[in-house]
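Here is the promised in-class demo. Please do not try to memorize the tokens; focus on the logic of going from shape to residues.
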């Protein structure tokens, strides 16, 4: 896997459903490296820290491999990497192979996969469509959030290299499907709840279901 784009967002206020909403989802590629801190990416806008940023969501990554499908859905948008609000766009990222708790070297940083991305209404804002969240859930390729074990700079061309696998955990793909499944497998729910590496906020969703 390789970093093809580093993306930073600035706070932006837009009108959505006749209300003003401030968001940091509008991210754009930058030429310089970005610094992964333990709770966020330095100089990136994090507006609502209840749902974004923090130890379990310090950095969001998304795959280049999914972009063509989405560009075909929204050909009228002006496309660039960072469209999904990701800090890092990664070539070769596969949610069906990456597991919760997997640890990677990523540039100067060391990171751990904590949970899949669960879209909020701001993804609809970014795509200017009330259907995007539903489409994202149905697509089932979510990208993932990272904990930053070791802070450091990441730049375009850096490799994302697996250094420690967690074979007992569900994959990111399996976890995302489980979150949004109406008829959840109790066996899989139990595995997720017992996983020490899965973000607590996601475990809480399973407890409530």
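The designed amino acids, position by position:
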């Amino acid at each position: 896997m390789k970093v093809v784009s580093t993306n930073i967002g600035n706070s932006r206020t837009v009108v959505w459903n006749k209300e003003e909403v401030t968001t940091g989802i509008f991210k754009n590629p930058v030429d310089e490296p970005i610094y992964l801190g333990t709770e966020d990416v330095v100089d990136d806008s994090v507006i609502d820290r209840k749902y974004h940023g923090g130890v379990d969501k310090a950095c969001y990554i998304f795959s280049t491999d999914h972009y063509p499908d989405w560009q075909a859905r929204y050909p009228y948008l002006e496309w660039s990497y960072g469209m999904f609000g990701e800090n890092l766009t990664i070539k070769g990222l596969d949610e069906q192979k990456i597991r919760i708790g997997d640890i990677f070297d990523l540039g100067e940083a060391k990171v751990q996969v904590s949970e899949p991305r669960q879209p909020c209404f701001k993804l609809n804002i970014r795509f200017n469509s009330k259907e995007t969240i539903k489409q994202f859930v149905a697509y089932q390729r979510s990208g993932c959030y990272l904990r930053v074990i070791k802070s450091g700079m990441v730049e375009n061309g850096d490799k994302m290299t697996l250094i420690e696998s967690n074979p007992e955990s569900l994959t990111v793909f399996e976890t995302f499907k489980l979150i949004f499944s109406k008829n959840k497998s109790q066996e899989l729910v139990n595995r997720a709840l017992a996983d020490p590496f899965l973000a607590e906020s996601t475990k809480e969703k399973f407890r409530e279901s």
